[in-house]
């Protein structure tokens, strides 16, 4: 089975399986440095959108018995689909509710959607910055009401022009090895 007792659970649309002891969904976490003392079980699929994670919530969260769940989801919806910011947010809230249903004692953390830059995926910043800002603003404002802790990773990773800091990304969308070091350092404050 995939039952892990007393571990941290990470969920993110950017991770391939790496053998950690938390639930993650990162498609580019292959550059992720092992974060300190917590372990992760990865159930991520490259390109995941909120609807994909929502469809797999039973598999992702049931029988995990997590103490902490960290969620990062939304950028693939924003740049790959016609889903509105409202749909992304509603799906994210539904994922949080399912995570709580299966792990009622778990502490829930929701990361902001990361910044993007123009580059490897075209005009990402030009096309997505406003949507990212809208999603992040509401995720921040609704944290207490919805019962999660908001992690403002956006402002950790953004440069003075509102773009993903160049050394923290290799293509304007995915974190680089240096970016993952910064992300890991920030996440360790919560885990």
Task: Write up what this structure looks like.
- This protein has helices at 50-55, 57-61, 75-80, 85-102, 124-141, 143-146, 154-157, 177-188; strands at 8-12, 68-72, 107-111, 149-151.
- Helix content is 38%, strand content 9%.
- It is built from eight helices and four strands; from the N terminus they run E-H-H-E-H-H-E-H-H-E-H-H.
- Helix 4 packs across helix 5 (124-141).
- The chain has 191 residues and is an alpha/beta fold.
- Strands 1-2-3-4 form a four-stranded parallel sheet, with helices on one face.
List the helices and strands and how they pair.
Blueprint: E1 8-12, H1 50-55, H2 57-61, E2 68-72, H3 75-80, H4 85-102, E3 107-111, H5 124-141, H6 143-146, E4 149-151, H7 154-157, H8 177-188
Parallel strand pairs: 1-2, 2-3, 3-4
Tally of extended strands? 4
Q: Strand sequence of the main sheet, in spatial order? A: 1-2-3-4
Fraction of helical residues: 25-40%
The topology string of helices and strands comes to EHHEHHEHHEHH
Rg over CA atoms, rounded to whole Å, is: 15 Å
Number of helices: 8
Largest sheet: 4 strands, parallel
Strand content is 5-15%
Low-pLDDT regions: 1-8, 12-35
- Rough outline: globular
Which structural class should the secondary elements be placed in? alpha/beta
N-to-C terminal Cα separation, in Å?
A: 24 Å
**Average pLDDT taken over every residue:** 80
Please outline what is shown here.
With 191 residues, the chain is α/β, with parallel strands linked by helices.
């Amino acid at each position: 089975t995939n039952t892990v007792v007393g571990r941290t659970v990470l969920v993110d649309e950017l991770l391939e399986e790496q053998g950690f002891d938390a639930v993650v969904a990162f498609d580019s976490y292959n550059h992720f440095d092992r974060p300190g003392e917590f372990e992760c079980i990865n159930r991520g699929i490259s390109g995941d959108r909120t609807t994909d994670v929502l469809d797999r919530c039973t598999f992702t969260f049931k029988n995990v018995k997590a103490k902490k769940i960290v969620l990062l989801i939304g950028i693939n919806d924003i740049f790959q689909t016609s889903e509105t910011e409202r749909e992304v947010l509603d799906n994210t809230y539904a994922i949080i509710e399912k995570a709580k249903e299966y792990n009622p004692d778990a502490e829930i953390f929701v990361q902001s959607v990361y910044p993007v830059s123009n580059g490897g995926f075209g005009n990402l910043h030009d096309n997505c910055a406003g949507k990212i800002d809208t999603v992040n603003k509401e995720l921040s404002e609704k944290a207490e009401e919805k019962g999660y802790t908001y992690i403002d990773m956006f402002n950790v990773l953004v440069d003075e022009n509102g773009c993903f800091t160049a050394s923290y990304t290799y293509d304007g969308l995915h974190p680089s090895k240096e970016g993952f070091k910064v992300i890991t350092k920030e996440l360790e404050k919560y885990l």
